[in-house]
Specification:
Strand order of the largest sheet: 3-4-5
Number of helices: 4
Helix content: 25-40%
Radius of gyration: 27 Å
CATH topology of one domain: Double Stranded RNA Binding Domain
Structural class: alpha+beta
CATH architecture of one domain: 2-Layer Sandwich
Strand content: 15-25%
């Protein structure tokens, strides 16, 4: 039997199938009697801390981005029980895992500080003056 192709995350990163642990369990929800007898819910786990698919910088980035989803060992768990088919649920879980890792690897652009335009400063000051004048006009003159 030929080795399975790795799970492609993006053009540069692919997770080897040997690093993925797949578990099938019984799903809840709709499905009638079928759901009580079939293990169609798929739980896919992948250890971010020990993976060979990422270099150290990528591992750090993924770990930081997905920290709330990782357990104490650094394992990421993805579950799919959307369909009645175990194969389809496995494909869904793999797609979700790849999407999570893809999003976590995005390097946010650094914000370049900009100066407000002269027109925007003038608009802001005009609005402030107008608001102050409105409040000043509302004050009682003390003729009581």
């Amino acid at each position: 039997m030929a080795a399975e192709a790795p799970l492609s995350v993006n053009a540069h990163i692919a997770i080897p199938r040997t690093e993925l642990l797949v578990r099938a369990t019984r799903a809840g929800g709709p499905g009638g009697q079928h759901v009580n007898t079939s293990s169609t819910r798929i739980e896919l786990t992948w250890n971010v801390a020990t993976t060979q698919a990422l270099d150290e910088e990528q591992r750090t980035r993924v770990h930081a981005a997905l920290l709330s989803r990782l357990d104490a060992d650094g394992t990421l768990r993805v579950v799919a029980s959307d369909t009645r088919s175990q194969r389809q649920n496995r494909e869904l879980a793999e797609e979700r895992l790849a999407a999570l890792v893809r999003r976590a690897l995005i390097v946010p652009r650094t914000r370049r500080k900009t100066k407000p335009t002269r027109a925007s400063v003038e608009r802001r000051l005009t609005t402030k003056k107008r608001a102050g004048a409105k409040k000043r006009d509302r004050r009682s003159l003390g003729d009581d």
